[in-house]
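BUG-389 | component: ligand-complex export | severity: low

The export step for tryptophanyl-5'AMP jobs runs without errors, but we want the raw record kept on the ticket for reference. Input record follows.
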Amino acid sequence: MEPEDRGMVVTPWKVEGEIDYEKLIRQFGTQPIGDELLEKFRKHTGGLHYQLRRKIFFSHRDLDWIFRKLEEGEKFVLYTGRGPSGPVHLGHIVPWIFTLHLQETFKAKLYFQLTDDEKYLYHDDFSLPYTVRMARENALDLIALGFDPKLTKIILDVEHIDALYHVAIQVAKHITGSTIKAVFGLKDSDNIGLTFFPAIQAVPCFLESLLQGRNVPCLIPAAIDQDPYWRVARDVAPKIGFYKPAQIHSRFMPGLGRGGKMSASQPETCVFLTDPPEEAKKKIMNAFTGGRPTAEEQRKLGGNPEVCSIYQYYFFLFERDDGKLKALWEKCRGGAILCGECKLELAGRVSRFLEQHQEKRERARDKLEEFLLSGEERRQILSSLLSKV
Ligand code: TYM
């Protein structure tokens, strides 16, 4: 099922066109995050994270059930991930920042999957050593954001397959080729690795249940492009004895061009976490804005933050204070700020963020082993099978 509407395409491998999020909720069959659920967040976290206040996270499956279980004393585990096709960009960290908030407030364990297998299979021109190396590089970005090493388990698919394979084949046995073709839009000419891969992405939903020897609820924060994987995983879960994984879905942070999601395939419109700060500044200074052709017109008629990529950067990541964000919107509309000033301010914020992040990222190299799913944990997961043999 490929939702394709006036150019809108949302699959795990392609996001294009103007995204209508209401329509996605209907097409994917998810639920909007309503006031009742926001109230639950308020109650359990003592406030509302800016990404919930701004409806950056806007949709879910079974989040109400996650809270119900929590209130009955069953804590949830978190699961998210990254396909290491190259360096991490700012869009990728939008769901990770929310995941970090959930880890901190609920003291929740996180499984973080790096799908070096998926990216090797998907991109004709990628070698396996490249995606395996990128997985370890991308892990540094996650660690640098401040996740707790005691509560975070990073999974490198290719290196850790010993723990994943026996679960993946149980998942795979319950999915037909025609389901995968329909859900992911695969063609007969696509390689068979891609057909099997969704079984691998389902596995981390169940790892904590296997380690604990009882069912543990799992909540997946990610942008909505990953939802096709969860549709398949949810269908299979009860058939192999697990709870269905729950999801909370985010919108896409746009790129610096005119419309469209931030995408590594357009590097000039995309700030990577490894970009030299000066280069990121240049990308921002060249960005598409909602400004008028001349300063005079801008002062007289005001700009249009609604279509401005710079405003979106503030909205998604770089201005967490709602009052200040609103003031910026009004200044832009009223012609009190010109695009040059607004870009310069953002460029400063982004380059300061990158400088600090890159320092932490280098320090993370020494911590990587501590975060990886250990040999002992992998043996334990495998023994959940071997003990029954
Ligand atoms: P990947 O590498 O495409 O994306 C990593 C995460 O970033 C989200 N994302 C975005 N969020 C906001 N704005 C954007 N512009 C944007 N672009 C991407 C994605 O939804 C994702 O959460 N197959 C996966 C890897 C994976 C995974 C997971 C992701 C394995 N297990 C569990 C999420 C949850 C992938 O290639 O992600």
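Assignee comment: Attached the raw record above. The chain has two domains: 5-256, 267-364.
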